[in-house]
Specification:
heterodimer; A: alpha+beta; Four Helix Bundle (Hemerythrin (Met), subunit A); five-stranded mixed sheet; 23 helices; 21 strands; about 20% strand; globular; B: alpha/beta; Rossmann fold; five-stranded parallel sheet; 5 helices
C-alpha cells in the first residue's frame, strides 16, 4: 500500500520539477526577483520534505544540498549567477532521473550527483565535506541502569484550552517505568470561585526508569513552555548497594525545599510521627507529606523488586484456576453493585464511603484479574507464518508474510477463538488475493506478494488487520455473483462498501473454481459469525489491482464489558457500550412525521431505528418522549428505541444456559445490583434480524 | 467507537499518507483541503482531534486553529500542527493560537501515530 503513497508523491514531484524548470529559466533573466527565488526554494523544500517521508532518501539528501544553497540566495548571502542556474538545472534533471529510476531499479549516475554537489558547494564557498547529509540518526544509546527521578509537574491553569490532557501525560510517564503519582489539590479554591475550565491540580511523580531524563522531558514536550517542570534524581539503581538506608521523610521534604531545617528540628524535638505532626501544626499540606511518603515507599518497592527479580520472574498456573478467579471477580462485581445501590438508598455517609472504597478496589481487582489472562497475540502469528509458507508453495506463488504488533495482548479465550477465522482470512488472501508471479510481473508488481498481519490496541478493543498486495476485490464479479445467487436484485444500487459486505453473505464465493485451499464449503459468512460471537466486527477495503485489507475489531475481554443500561417498561436491557455512538430523543411528533418508516432525522442524516418495545412485544404504552440509542454496526448507524436510558454499567456476562442459548438478539444476561436479571442485546444480530424481516 | 480525526492539508500526498496511517491505526478520518474547508466541516462534524498543515491557501493553519478553538465542539480537542524545521516562530504562533502540539516534517507514519497516541491517550 505504501506504493500508492510513493506514486502520489512522484506525481506531485514531477509537477514541482516542471514548475522549478520554468522558475529557473525565468530567474536567469531576472536574477533579483525575490518571488522567483522563493518559488525555487519552496519547490526544493517540498521535494525534500515529502521525499524523505515516502522513502526517497537519496532524493531527499541530494535536494537538501541544493535547498541549502537557495536558502543562502534567499537570505541575500549568495548572488544568482549563470553558473548557479546551470548547476541547479542540472540538479533538477538529476532529481528527475532519480524519480524515473526509483521504481524500475535503474540506478542513477552517482558521480554526476557528486559533481553537481561539489560544484554548488564551491559556489557557496563551502569545504566539500561541510554539509552532512540529513536524516542520519545517531546510534541508539546503550541501555542504562535504572534511575529514580522526582518530578513535579505544575501545569498552567489554562492547560485544557490548548487541548492537552495532563492525565494522558501521566499515563505516558507510567509507560517509561515504575511510577507513583500523587495529585496535589491544595490550590483548589472554594466552590463559588472555581472555574470549571481551569486546572487547579498539580502532580508529584516518582519514576524509576532506564530511559534517561530526556525521555521524561519528551513526554512534556508540548506543554514544557507553559508549565513548571522540575526533574531531579533521587536514587540510582546501580548504587542501591551502597545506599544502605532509606531516606527519612524529613530528609526528603528538606531536599525538596518544602520544609526548612529549623522547622524540621523543632518537629523532631517533639518525637511524634513526623508527617502527622507537620500536618497537625499546619506547616505542611497533607498532599505534600503523602507525596514524600510515596517516594519513600516507591524506592523501597523498586529495591525489593530488583532483589526479587533474580528469584522468580513468572510462575506457571493452570488456566482453570485463572478462569475461576475471573468468575469469582465477576460475582464480586455483582455484589459490589448491590452494595453501592443499597448504600445510595440509605443516607448513611459512613456506609457510602465504604461502598465507594469497595467499588474502587473491585475495579482494580477486576482489571488485574482480567489482565492475568492476557496473552500476546504473537504465538498465533508465528503459526500463520508456517501456514503461508506451505500454502504458497502448494499454489506456486511467492508470498512473504510480515507481522506487526505481535506483543499486543488479548484475552486467552479470545485468542483461541480467533484462530480459525484468521486462518480462513489468510487462506483467502493467499488463494484469491495474491496472483501468480507471472501475472504480478505483467501487472508491473514485484513477483513475490506480501501478506501483512498486524495487531494494534485501539481504545477498549484490538484491531487486527490482514492486508495483501494482490489483485483486490472485483466489484463487477461480486455484483454478478450476488445477482446470480439471488442475494440482491438487479434494481439495487450498492455503494462499494455495501458491495464488499456481500461477500459475507451465506453461500457466497467468487472463485471461479474451488481449490483445496479455500472454498471448501466454509464461507466468509462463518468467519463473520465467529467474529461477531466475540462481539467483534469486520470491515473490508480494497483497491482493484492494489490489494485488499480486512480489519477485524475485537474487544479486549469477554468476561466483563462496559454497557449502557436502558429500560423498557419494567424490563432492563444492556447494550455493549463499545457499539454505542450517541443517544437522542424521539418524540411522538417525530414518530408521526416518519409515517411508519422508522427513520429519525439526526443532524441532517437519516438514521433507521428499531422500536425494541414492539420488537420484543413488551406490553404497555411508551412514554411521550422515548430515547433512541444510536449504534454503529459494520459502518452503519442504527438506532434502538427504548423508554429510558439509565447510564453506564459494569456488566458481568452470564450465558443464558442451553435452553435459551440461541435466542435471537440476546447474547447473554447479567445480574443487577438489586438481584434482578437484565438481558444483554446482541446488536449486530438484531440488525440482521430486522433487515431479514424487511 | 472509533475516534474521528480530521486532517487538513493542501498537499494531496501528505493528506493521503496521514489519512492512510490513521485508518490503519483504527481511527476514522475526515479530510479537508484547506483551512476554510476544514472549518466548514468542523462546524457540522464532530471530531476528536485535528491535524493541520500551516501553509494552506484560503485560510492558513493558524487561522484554522483560532477558528476551531472558537467552536464549542473543538474547544478542548487536541490540535496538532505540521511544521517544517525552519518555522520555529510559526510553532510559537500556533501554540498561542491554541495548538496542542506539533509534528516536524518530514515525518514517518510511526512518528505520526506516536503523537496521536500522546495527545489522544
Amino acid at each position: 500500500m505504501i506504493d500508492q503513497h510513493r506514486q502520489a508523491f512522484k506525481e506531485e514531484a514531477y509537477e514541482l520539477l516542471a514548475e522549478l524548470e520554468t522558475s529557473l529559466l525565468e530567474l536567469e533573466e531576472r536574477p533579483d526577483d525575490l518571488d522567483l527565488i522563493g518559488r525555487v526554494f519552496r519547490a526544493m523544500h517540498t521535494i525534500k520534505g515529502s521525499g524523505s517521508m515516502f522513502g526517497f532518501d537519496d532524493i531527499a539528501s541530494f535536494t537538501h544540498e541544493v535547498e541549502t544553497i537557495f536558502d543562502m540566495v534567499r537570505n541575500g548571502k549568495l548572488q544568482v549567477t549563470g553558473r548557479l542556474v546551470n548547476l541547479t538545472l542540472a540538479a533538477r534533471d538529476q532529481i528527475k532521473a532519480m524519480l524515473d529510476g526509483a521504481d524500475d531499479g535503474n540506478g542513477v549516475d552517482l558521480e554526476a550527483s557528486a559533481g553537481i554537489i561539489v560544484g554548488l558547494r564551491e559556489l557557496a564557498g563551502f569545504q566539500s565535506a561541510a554539509a552532512a547529509p540529513p536524516g542520519k540518526e545517531s546510534a541508539k544509546a546503550a541501555p542504562r541502569d535504572p534511575v529514580t527521578y522526582r518530578i513535579r509537574f505544575v501545569p498552567s491553569r489554562e492547560i485544557f484550552a490548548s487541548g492537552s490532557n495532563p492525565l494522558t501525560l501521566l499515563s505516558e510517564l507510567k509507560d517509561l517505568g515504575t511510577c507513583s503519582v500523587v495529585a496535589q489539590t491544595s490550590d483548589f479554591p472554594g466552590l463559588e470561585e472555581i472555574n470549571p475550565e481551569a486546572c487547579y491540580v498539580y502532580w508529584d511523580i516518582i519514576l524509576t526508569t532506564n530511559q534517561g531524563e530526556n525521555a521524561i522531558r519528551d513526554v512534556f514536550i508540548f506543554v514544557e513552555d507553559d508549565c513548571e517542570l522540575k526533574i531531579s534524581v533521587v536514587a540510582e539503581h546501580s548504587r542501591f548497594e551502597e545506599q544502605q538506608d532509606y531516606k527519612k521523610l524529613g530528609e526528603i521534604l528538606l531536599e525538596r525545599g518544602d520544609i526548612t531545617p529549623k522547622e524540621m528540628e523543632d518537629l523532631l524535638a517533639q518525637q511524634r510521627k513526623f508527617g502527622e505532626l507537620a500536618i497537625s501544626q499546619g506547616i505542611l499540606h497533607e498532599g505534600k507529606v503523602q507525596s514524600a511518603l510515596i517516594e519513600q515507599r516507591h524506592i523501597k518497592e523498586v529495591r525489593q523488586e530488583k532483589q526479587g527479580a533474580e528469584a522468580a520472574s513468572s510462575i506457571r498456573v493452570p488456566a482453570e484456576r485463572l478462569d475461576l478467579l475471573v468468575n469469582l471477580v465477576g460475582e464480586m462485581v455483582t455484589v459490589q453493585a448491590r452494595l453501592s445501590q443499597t448504600a445510595a438508598q440509605r443516607a448513611d455517609v459512613e456506609l457510602l464511603a465504604i461502598a465507594e472504597e469497595v467499588e474502587r478496589l473491585t475495579a482494580e481487582l477486576r482489571d488485574s484479574a482480567l489482565n492475568i489472562r492476557m496473552l500476546p497475540i504473537g504465538s498465533t502469528f508465528s503459526k500463520f507464518k508456517r501456514l503461508v509458507r506451505d500454502l504458497s508453495a502448494e499454489l506456486g506463488k511467492q508470498i512473504e508474510m510480515t507481522t506487526e504488533g505481535a506483543e499486543t495482548e488479548l484475552d486467552k479465550t479470545v485468542i483461541e477463538k480467533l484462530n480459525d477465522p484468521l486462518v480462513h482470512l489468510i487462506r483467502n488472501s493467499i488463494d484469491h488475493g495474491i496472483e501468480l508471479p507471472e501475472a504480478r510481473v505483467a501487472a508491473g508488481k514485484p513477483g513475490h506478494g506480501t501478506v501483512h498481519l498486524s495487531a494494534v490496541h485501539s481504545g477498549d478493543s484490538v484491531l487486527i488487520t490482514i492486508a495483501d498486495d494482490g489483485a483486490g476485490l472485483d466489484k463487477d464479479a461480486i455484483r454478478a455473483k450476488a445477482l446470480e445467487k439471488g442475494i440482491i436484485s438487479a434494481a439495487v444500487e450498492l455503494s462499494e462498501k455495501e458491495l464488499f459486505q456481500l461477500i459475507f453473505a451465506p453461500g457466497f464465493s467468487t472463485a471461479k473454481k474451488l481449490s483445496s485451499v479455500s472454498g471448501r464449503g466454509v464461507g466468509m459468512d462463518v468467519v463473520k459469525r465467529a467474529i461477531e460471537a466475540l462481539r467483534g466486527s469486520i470491515d473490508i477495503s480494497s483497491v482493484r489491482g492494489e490489494g485488499t485489507r480486512i480489519m477485524v475489531r475485537i474487544p479486549l475481554t469477554l468476561a466483563i464489558i462496559e454497557s449502557l443500561r436502558v429500560r423498557i417498561g419494567t424490563d432492563t436491557f444492556m447494550l455493549p457500550l463499545s457499539l454505542v455512538d450517541e443517544c437522542v430523543e424521539l418524540t411522538r411528533e417525530d414518530v408521526a412525521r416518519s409515517h411508519g418508516r422508522n427513520l429519525a432525522h439526526v443532524r441532517e442524516q437519516l438514521v433507521p431505528y428499531i422500536p425494541l418495545r414492539e420488537h420484543f412485544r413488551i406490553p404497555g404504552d411508551p412514554p411521550d418522549i422515548e430515547q433512541i440509542v444510536i449504534t454503529q454496526v459494520d459502518g452503519l448507524r442504527v438506532g434502538f428505541v427504548v423508554d429510558h436510558v439509565i447510564g453506564e454499567h459494569q456488566t458481568v456476562i452470564k450465558s443464558l444456559g442451553r435452553a435459551y442459548k440461541d435466542t435471537e438478539g440476546i447474547s447473554g444476561a447479567t445480574i443487577l445490583g438489586d438481584g434482578s436479571v437484565a438481558l444483554i442485546l446482541d446488536i449486530p444480530q438484531l440488525v440482521q434480524a430486522v433487515e431479514a424481516l424487511q | 467507537m472509533a475516534k474521528v480525526i480530521m486532517t487538513a492539508d493542501d498537499s494531496a500526498s501528505v493528506r493521503q499518507m496521514v489519512s492512510f496511517t490513521l485508518k490503519q491505526g483504527g481511527y476514522e478520518v475526515v479530510e479537508a483541503v484547506d483551512g476554510k474547508d476544514a472549518l466548514q466541516k468542523l462546524s457540522t462534524t464532530k471530531v476528536d482531534m485535528l491535524i493541520t498543515d500551516l501553509n494552506m491557501p484560503n485560510l492558513d493553519g493558524i487561522g484554522l486553529i483560532k477558528g476551531a478553538r472558537a467552536l464549542a465542539g473543538c474547544k478542548f480537542i487536541p490540535i496538532v500542527m505540521l511544521t517544517t524545521e525552519s518555522q520555529d516562530s510559526k510553532k510559537q504562533e500556533g501554540k498561542s493560537a491554541g495548538a496542542t502540539g506539533w509534528i516536524v516534517k518530514p515525518f514517518k507514519p510511526e512518528q505520526l501515530m506516536a503523537v496521536v497516541k500522546k495527545v489522544l491517550g
